[in-house]
Structure formats: structure tokens, C-alpha cells
Amino acid sequence: MTGSIEQGISQTHGNTHILHFLVRLPWSMEAVWPALSTPDGLAGWLAPVEVLEPRLGGAVGLRGLGSGRITAWDVDRVAEYTMDDGARVRFHLERDGESASVLRFTHEFQGEGASERGWRTRLEQLVERIGPDR
Questions:
Q1: Which CATH code is given to the segment(s) 4-130?
Q2: Mean pLDDT of each 10-residue bin along the chain, 134 residues long
């Protein structure tokens, strides 16, 4: 069984763009969390990690996305990385039954940024990375 990625939602408010995805995963939050919150996990599907201090206010550096701070951190549940340019990437995990989870993904940015298609591709790589055949 693999995860499913629902149609993304794109919103624009002035020069601020917000992309939302809902990803249903057949794995527990505990199984998914390392892919969202550790250097090895993030490097496997999102970007190489230059620095990651896993705590609220900790430094984060993701090659190609930028450097910044961790602006939300709730172990096994929420990781939010806000870059120096104001871009924000948020992962919010929720339980979905006894052994599955739902990932609510948000990317907020100013001006030009990653497309819905680009993030869908990355999220597909996430599903492959944490799948049973990893």
C-alpha cells in the first residue's frame, strides 16, 4: 500500500503564494516523522541539509531552499522551517486510524517559487522514501 497525494491548493494574497497538500500515508506518524525532521530523512527526498538544530528556534539550512530558523517544533507532529527570505515550509502530521497518518503540507513564499507540480514530485519522492521497499 502506498500513500496518496490529494490535489494541491494554491492561494495568492498580493505577492504571497501559499501551496497546500494533503498526503494520506499508510504508516504511523512515528514512521513518517524522521523523513521530515532529520538530516538523512530530508536529504532523501527534499534537499541536502547543511544544518538542522531540531528544536524551536534552531537553525536550519536546506540546500536550494535556503537558511533560516525552526519556527514550530512538536516532536512527531509539527516541523516548520522559515527561511531568511520569508519562505515557510510546514509539515503537520496527524493520526489517521491506528496505523496510518495524514501529512498537511504548506509552502508559503513571496514572488516566484516552487510550483505545485514541483512540490507534488517531491512529495511523491517522500512517499517512495518511507515506503515498505526503502
A1: 3.30.530.20
A2: 74 84 94 96 96 97 94 97 94 94 92 75 91 55
